[in-house]
Amino acid sequence: MKSRPFALAAALAAAGLAAPAAAQQANEQFFPLLVYRTGAYAPNGTPWANGKQDYVKYINATGGINGVKIAWEECETGYATDKGVECYERLKGKKSSLIDPQATGITFALTDKAPVDKIPLITLGYGLAASQDGGVFKWNFPLMGSYWTAADALIQHLGKKEGGLDKLKGKKIALVYHDSPFGKEPIPLLQKRAQMHGFELVLLPVTAPGVEQKATWLQVRQQRPDYTLLWGWGVMNSTALKEAVATGYPREKLFGVWWSGAEPDVKDVGANAKGYSALALNPHGTDSALIKDILKKVHDAGNGAGPRDEVGSVLYMRGLLIQMFATEAVRTAQAKFGAGKVMTGEQVRWGLENLNIDDKRIGELGLAGLIRPLKTTCTDHMGSTAVRLHTWDGSQWKMQADWYEADKAVIDPMVKEAADRYATEKQIKRRDPSDCNA
Amino acid sequence: MLYRENGQFKTSYAADQQIFPILQDRVAIGVLLAIAFVVVPMFGSDYLFRAILIPFLILALAALGLNILVGYCGQISLGTGAFMAVGAYAAYNFLVRIDGMPLIAAMLLGGLCATVIGVLFGIPSLRIKGLYLAVATLAAQFFTDWAFLRIGWFTNNSTSGSVSVAGLNVFGLPIESAVAKYLFCLAVVCVFALGAKNLVRSAIGRQWMAIRDMDVAAAVIGIRPMYAKLTAFAVSSFIVGVAGVLWAFVHLGAWEPAAFSIDRSFQLLFMVIIGGLGSIMGAFFGAAFIIVLPILLDQVPQWFGIPLSTATTSHLVHMIFGALIVFFLIVEPHGLARLWSIGKQKLRLWPFPH
Description:
- The complex is a heterodimer of chains A (438) and B (354).
- Chain A is of the alpha/beta class and 438 residues long.
- Chain A has helices spanning 4-18, 42-61, 81-92, 104-111, 114-117, 147-162, 181-184, 187-197, 214-223, 235-247, 263-267, 289-299, 314-337, 345-353, 359-364, 408-426, 433-437; strands at residues 28-35, 69-76, 121-122, 140-141, 172-178, 200-206, 227-231, 254-256, 277-280, 356-357, 374-375, 388-392, 397-399.
- In chain A, α10 links the parallel β7 and β8.
- In chain A, α6 (147-162) packs parallel to α8 (187-197).
- Chain A starts with a helix and ends with a helix.
- A two-stranded antiparallel sheet of chain B has the order 1-4. Chain B has a two-stranded antiparallel sheet with strand order 2-3.
- In chain B, β2 and β3 form a beta hairpin.
């Protein structure tokens, strides 16, 4: 009787040692997919993960990247940093050539490991703002925007509403943020903008995961800020909106970052959230040629990763876009290192650094008119900072027309300073210009 | 047959009091250490080191520290994560603020800071006991969470609240590769495990156990409860603090207070309970059960080519893991270490049980 647990444990251990390596063909490009389909952030993590998977399946259904099929494996992180590190270590050995950590905390932990393992990190719309500087962060790619460009676009939008950035003088802007590196990232930029335009910045932290916000909104009620920026993720967003309703804070004065502007955030609040705006990093809806093709080739073939009606939702599209850029990076790398070959991590890194998604390519990808051109360089790992806002009309997100670009005069010196500080702390040297041409 | 002590006579007190009185145990431990220090580094993969062995060793060390407090002295604590965090952030500050600070010194100083905080939060144990004390130690958890999130000085005014270390080395040897990190953790854990084992066998250890078993009786026979309880808090939080330094510096590299949240405290308490209260070996069993088993379970469907979605696998792991916890606690409430010693006892009589 007593020996049975040991027998069980021994059998498990033996199975572990004897396990055959997962089948992976030599001529397949391997993408590890770090996801979270369970835990506190699952409602947001699931469509994101499904979008990533569907795009991989779509590429394989259309013949791969110049004939190279994509192999993939998911690993559940539950949004926990230590679990994410475990996933990374588990999957990197399978010739991983690119990783999207899908969480700010995991990105911080992997930023040190990526240069050693020579695996680029793609952190579309999240991660470290300073990692835009390719001179220091050789392996990080915060494509399309960071929290600094997001905060900058929001301030520009508020300025526009007021009729000029100078009109923000004397105004009170509150930041309700997730109390973690993710939520704190925009603060330096907002402080700088506050200094420039003379508005007052009120910082209101919310403890993770953000279901308890009574005290925070009591302060909003007391201080009555002219505008409130929402920097939340997961259940924090819908809670914040409900609290705003309870507090009677006008939703028209509430502006979220792109992680606070998806369907799961507003669905529970429904019509009460009407008028709430958030940044829209990516387009959504099912009108694009790409989505129609995916529905036909993946979902109609019975191969979809998630439910059909989720296709085209905000976070699904973000996952899709991330995988699209990853695929384009491999394609770009193949143009230099040989079409139809499997690219290594270093080659994919080169591809990420030389992405050129112009209007013509966007049309070929089936996203005509929906995203802005993106061009990365050795020094600029972001490529584009263009972003729009969308507003919840009570039943769906409505895209606004204006595009915003982060003000280079504000962002660039901050990025350089932060990157230099990081380089000093980590004792790494800024890349030589000759390294760029390699 | 192979495992019995017939004919092994002790002729001195020293021989009688050694940690492993049976020759076979000494040989087994010697072989185990040789495998851990020599064979594993030669053949282990990066994944084995970074994802399994290093977290296992570090959390085993933390569980060891907690076991001194909970298992040996009977003071239930839910502040383990807090003491780990104090160790980690203190060591980080020593490292970035003092030029040329050696890693080992920063680690020990971090441990000392955790000791101070541990003793401070241990003072209520003089008045309150058991579950009440567990709730009181929660204060440590909430306090450190607040302090490291809000007070910029602790994180060297990092804008995101996340801090990181780089370029670790011991006596000029870089702790960068997986093997180096593993060996460093292993060495630290071995030293601390040996020290803890000897401490619990010494006079102070017996005082702790007397307090645990019945504090009034212990006081009657002349044990000072204050001294015994506070030393247990001090030793425990020192070890836990050092484990915190290793977790932050060696395992994560970059961390935020969430790495030492209340979940970590619970996790360590479960390790101690499942591994075996009042047993040094139990800390290792507990850590293996809590850290390694879910990772293995997570990969089982894949080994056998069972097509399960990621979410289903993750849910299954939680269910099976929970069932196993219940199973083990029913089979042996004293933990895996007790099962181990029962097994050894049976082997000594084998093949002729009474």
